[in-house]
Amino acid sequence: MSRTSEHQNIVAPLPPEPPDAPATPALPHSCAPAPAGDVAGTPAEGAAGTPAEGAAGPPAEGAPGGPAATAPRRRRVRLVGIDAARGLALIGMMSVHLIDPATSDNDVSLAWALSNGTASALFALLAGVGIAFSTGGRRPPTGRAWRAGALSLLTRAVIIGAIGLVLGYVVGVTDAAVILAYYGVLFALAIPFLRLSTRGLVVAAAAAALVMPLVSYAARSAIDPVGASNPTLTDLVTDPLGLMSRLTLTGVFPALVWISYLLAGMAVGRSLLSSRRVAGMIMLLGVALALASSLLSMLLLTVGGLSSRLRSDALQTMDFEVYQDTLTWGPSGTTPTNSPWWLVAMAPHSGSPLDLAFTIGVALAVLGACLLLGRGLQPLLLPLAAAGSMTLTLYGAHLLLVAAPFPGGVLTWVGQVVLVVAFAVVWNRHRLRGPLEELVWRATDAVRRKVLGGGEPRRTATGH
Predict the structure, then answer these.
(1) Torsion angle in degrees (nearest 10) through CA of 168, 171, 176, 178
(2) Tell me: the pLDDT tens digits for 366-408?
(3) What kind and span of H or E run contains 44?
(4) What is the mean pLDDT of residues 178-189?
C-alpha cells in the first residue's frame, strides 16, 4: 500500500502594534491579543468584533500610513481559531507519518481514516488564507500594494521551496513526502489571483477543482511515470524540467491540481472571519460540500454503473490487489491513468474533482468550527494554537525526527505531539515567531518595505 503524507501551511505570527497604538500587556504567545499585518499572519479583530484598522496588510497606494494612520486604534485580538486549525493539521500530518495505516485486521486505522488526504488539504487551504491576510485582507491589493504583495510572496515561495529541496536530502519518501517544494510553486502560482475578489476566488477555486484534474489526467497519460522521491537541489540543477513536471503534475502534491485548495483558502481569507455568522456559514458550507461530494461519487459509481467500468479498465493494467489498495488507501497524490472513471471516485489523496471537493469541504468545516470555538474557548485552544503559529519550524523538526532511526507508532506520535506543543508554548513566551518563521518574515518584509518605500524594519515585541 502507498503511504501518502500530510503537510502544512507556512505562517509567521503577527508583528507588534505601531508605537502610536495603545499599550497592551506582554503576550504569552502570538495567538493571544496581538497586532496584525504580518507577511502571512492571522488577522486581528477589533473590540467590537470587526477587523481592526490596519489589520488587512500594507497601506493602500496613495494613502500614507493607510487607514490606521487616521482612524482611532482599537484593541486587537488574534483569531486564535485559525492557528488552532493549523495545529490540528500539523498533528494530523504527524499521525499519518507515524501511526500504522492498517489495524491488526488489515482495516483502515482511525488515524489514517481521519487524516489521510484531509490534513494536507487543510494545510493547503490555510496557506491560501495566510496569502489573503498578507495581501490586503478583505480588500484585494492594487497598484504598488499589489506589486509589494506579489514580490514578497515570490520571495516567500523561493525560501520555502529551497528549504523543502534541502530537506529532500535527509527525508526519504518512504518516511514522508516533503511538501515544501510544492508549496514554493503553489505560492508563485497564486500571484496572478491576488487581485480577485472573494466571489472571483470562489469561481476560480471551483473551476480549478473541476478542470485541473482533467488537464492533469490528459497530460500524465502522455508522460512516462517518474520514480517516487523527494525533490532536491540536485534535481533543480540536473533535471529542472523533470523537477517542474513533478512539482506541477506528477508528484505527491501536484501544484496545478492543488491550486484549488489555495484559491479556496484565499476566498476564505478575504471574508469577515471575525463574524460568528461568517464562521458558522463556512462550517456549514464545508459540511454540505463534503456530504454532497460523497453522495455524488457513490451515486455515480453504484447507480450510474461506473464502478464496473472503472474496475474493468483498471484490471487491464494492474493487479486486483493493487486496484483494491488504491481505492482503499489512495494513490500517491494523483489518479491512475488507466481509466478516466478514476476521476469520479473518491480515493483518498487522489486529486480527483470529487476528492478535491470533499477535502475542501472537510477543511472548511474544521476551520469554521475552530473559529467558533476560538471565540468562547480561547484559553483551552492556546497550546494547540501556539503550535499552529509556527508550523514551518515544527514541521521541519518533525521531518528530521521521522528521518531519524526511531520506531513509529502511537506512543512515538504522542511523544512528538507533546514535544512540539511544549516547545511552541515555551518559545512563544519570549518570541512572536518560530525560528524559520522569523527568517521568512524578515526576508519578505524587507521586500515589501522596499517596494512600498518603507523605512526601518519593524521590530517584534521582544525587540529583535
Answers:
(1) -20
(2) 999 999 998 888 888 999 999 999 999 999 999 999 998 888 8
(3) strand 44-45
(4) 95
Distance CA 251, CA 229 (A): 9
For residue 285, report the phi and psi dihedrals to the nearest 5 degrees.
-60, -40
Beta-strand (E) ranges in 77-121?
77-78
- Minimal CA–CA distance to 289: which of 223, 373, 335, 346? 346
The pLDDT value recorded for residue 109 is: 86
Task: Give the Cα separation of 77 and 34 in Å (integer).
Answer: 6
pLDDT digits (tens, 9 = 90+) for 17-57: 344 333 333 333 333 333 333 323 344 333 333 333 333 33
Residue 464 burial (C-beta neighbours within 10 Å; 0-12, 13-18, 19+):
exposed
The two counts, helices (H) then strands (E), for the chain are 17, 2
Question: What b/e sequence results for 199-226 when a residue is b if at least 16 CB atoms lie within 10 Å of its CB, and e otherwise?
Answer: ebbbebbbebbeebbeebbebbeeeeee
CB 160 within 8 A of CB 392: yes
Instruction: Identify the CA nearest to 201 among candidates 281, 289, 149, 262.
Output: 262
| Reduced DSSP (H G I as helix, E B as strand, rest coil) percent helix, strand, coil of the chain, to 5 | 60, 0, 40
User: Which of 376, 136, 361, 375 lies closest to 275 in space, CA to CA?
Assistant: 375
Q: What does the pLDDT read at residue 75?
A: 41
Q: Could you tell me if residue 11 is left (phi over 0), alpha (psi between -120 and 50 degrees) or otherwise beta?
A: beta
pTM for the model: 0.82
Question: Sign of the C-alpha dihedral, residues 146, 149, 151, 157?
Answer: negative
Rg from Cα positions in the chain: 21
Cα–Cα dist 189/32, whole Å: 32
What backbone phi and psi angles, to 5 degrees, belong to 146? -65, -45
DSSP string computed for 276-327: HHHHHHHHHHHHHHHHHHHHHHHHHHTTT-HHHHHHHHHTTTS-HHHHHHHH
